[in-house]
Specification:
NADH Oxidase; 10% strand; 2 domains; 4 strands; 4-stranded antiparallel sheet
């Protein structure tokens, strides 16, 4: 599928076909895409545990659903990908090792000052980096552990933007769902064997949508001119209506929610799954 069409088609799917299984190769394709996601310092702090709902014993399945308050999409989706951030991957020593690796493969230019000695002295001793190179002596030297957690979480969240697009590209429905209520996060780690140091990020629900894949239309978004500026804050970036027309033709910009039959569809789905129609 064309990239812009994938972005335009993406919806948070909240109704899944419980009876239709997802081929394992499609899950692998999603994970392969995330593996290649961009990440400063090539830290790659994301970790995932893939759980197939129908392969769990009943007690474990019900406990994992109970700690998430039996959220509807979670009960229905056949695949649950539990995403965690590993702060150990965002510690200064790992940043040093991974950036040296990037220099060695030609990804970080030596011409800008990147080399093993400069990287290590900046991170270990706070030595000023030369012009052309990032100021890692201020960013990484003495990095507190709590900031490593924040870095690991933020980079994992960024990678998951690619993960949801990869799922759409596979013709699947997907949603980023909370893993569990805060008081039950430790229990989920225990069930899944996740190390204590890892921080919970999202549970990605994956399956075939029971609702229309457009899910009633594109969600509300703030006006373009309130989000993006040119030259200085508050000066809106000009929006060319010709470009808007092109993007609509390419499938990025689509009809806004709610579609004409959306609420009737929601009533039918509620009946089918035994929820109040609302």
């Amino acid at each position: 599928m064309d990239f812009l069409k994938v972005v335009g088609d993406r919806r948070t799917i909240r109704w899944f076909k419980t009876w239709e299984q997802v081929p394992e190769e499609k899950i692998q394709r999603i994970l392969e895409a995330v593996r290649l996601s961009t990440c400063p310092g090539n830290l790659q702090p994301w970790r995932a545990v893939v759980v197939y709902r129908d392969e769990l014993d009943q007690a474990t399945r019900e406990e994992l659903l109970a700690v998430d308050n039996w959220q509807g999409g979670h009960t229905q989706a056949p695949v649950w990908i539990y995403w965690y951030a590993d702060p150990g991957a965002a510690r200064p020593e790992n940043f040093a090792a991974r950036t040296v690796e990037l220099v060695e493969v030609g990804a970080l230019p030596r011409a800008y000052g990147w080399n093993a000695d400069t990287i290590k002295s900046a991170i270990e001793e706070a030595v000023e980096t030369p012009e052309g190179m990032a100021s890692i002596q201020e960013l990484i030297h003495g990095l507190p552990e709590e900031l490593s957690v924040a870095v690991a979480i933020s980079e994992t969240v960024g990678a998951l933007g690619l993960s949801v697009l990869a799922a759409v590209n596979e013709g699947l429905g997907t949603a980023l769902n909370m893993i569990a209520r805060p008081t039950k996060q430790a229990r989920v780690k225990e069930i899944l064997g996740v190390p204590e140091r890892c921080a919970p990020v999202w549970c990605q629900l994956v399956g075939y949508p029971a609702e229309d894949s457009k899910a009633g239309g594109q969600r509300p978004r703030d006006p373009f001119g309130e989000l993006f500026f040119k030259g200085t804050w508050g000066q809106p970036f000009p929006r060319d209506e010709g470009v808007v027309d092109d993007l609509r033709a390419e499938g990025l910009l689509q009809d806004s929610a709610p579609g004409a039959s959306r609420f009737e569809e929601l009533k039918n789905l509620a009946r089918m799954y035994g929820y109040p129609e609302g």
